[in-house]
Amino acid sequence: MEQKPTILIMDDDLAMQTVLEIALREAGYQVILANDGQEGIDKIRSLKPNLVVSDIMMPQMDGVEAFNLIKEELQDDGIPIFIMTALNRKPWFADMEADGAVIIQKPFEVDQFVQLVNDMLL
User: Fold this and answer.
1) What distance in Å separates the CA atoms of residue 28 and residue 60, rounded to the nearest whole number?
2) Which residues have C-beta within 8 Å of that of residue 86, sequence separation ≥ 6?
3) How does DSSP assign 56-113, residue by residue?
4) I want to staple 11 with a disulfide (CB 3.0 to 4.6 A). Which of 28, 36, 55, 111 is the partner?
5) How do residues 64-82 score in pLDDT, each as one tens digit?
6) pTM for the whole thing?
7) 95 C-beta neighbours (distance < 10 Å), count
8) Residue 51's beta-bridge partner residues?
9) Burial of 24 from C-beta contacts in 10 A (0-12 / 13-18 / 19+)
10) Which residues pair with 58 in a beta bridge?
11) Could you read off the pLDDT of 29-38 as tens digits, one per residue?
């Protein structure tokens, strides 16, 4: 039986975690949750997910710090990274996109998000 792709969601917002987890599980993915960037980095190192979804604004380690660490340590693994944010577009978003991040503005339609994940992984 084929292994389902694994997606790590890093977000300190429990409601957002829950909505994305349910939608992604229904779409056939395994989902791992982390409440902040540091917990997410630890899980990435041990579990090697197929895709990382991260909020920007989180305690301990924010999404920008986590993204930079992932790119530094795991760039050879080619793990796609989606960054979710409620921030208005910032000049430094372009730097993250140039490094491979897909930036998703909140609020977003969950169905469109799942389609984006499908397009990236299938």
Assistant:
1) 31
2) 57, 105, 106, 107
3) SS-SSS-HHHHHHHHHHHHGGGT--EEEEE-SPP-TTHHHHHHTTEEEEESS--HHHH
4) 55
5) 889 888 888 766 677 889 9
6) 0.91
7) 12
8) 7
9) buried
10) none
11) 999 999 999 9
CB atoms within 10 A of CB 115: 12
Secondary structure of residue 45 in the 3-state scheme: helix
pLDDT tens-place string over residues 100-113 = 899 999 999 999 99
Residue 44 contacts residue 79 (beta carbons within 8 Å): yes
Q: Which amino acid is at 57?
A: M
CA–CA distance, 56 with 14 (Å, rounded to integer): 15
| Total length of the chain | 122
